[in-house]
Amino acid sequence: MIAILGGLGAALAFAVTTLCSARASRSIGALATLGWVMLVGLVPAVVAVLAWGGDAPQGSQFGWLALSGLGNVVGLALVYAAMRRGQVGVVAPITSTEGAVAAVIAIALGEEISTGVGVSLAAVVVGVALAAAAPGVEGKTSPVAVALACSAAVAFGAGIYATGRVSQELSIAWAMLPARAVGVVLVTLPLLATRRLPRPGQATKLVVVTGLAEVAGFASYAVGARHGIAIAAVLASQFAALAALGAYLLWRERLTRIQIAGIVLIAVAVAALSALRA
Question: Which domain does 207 fall in, by range?
Answer without folding.
Answer: 2-277
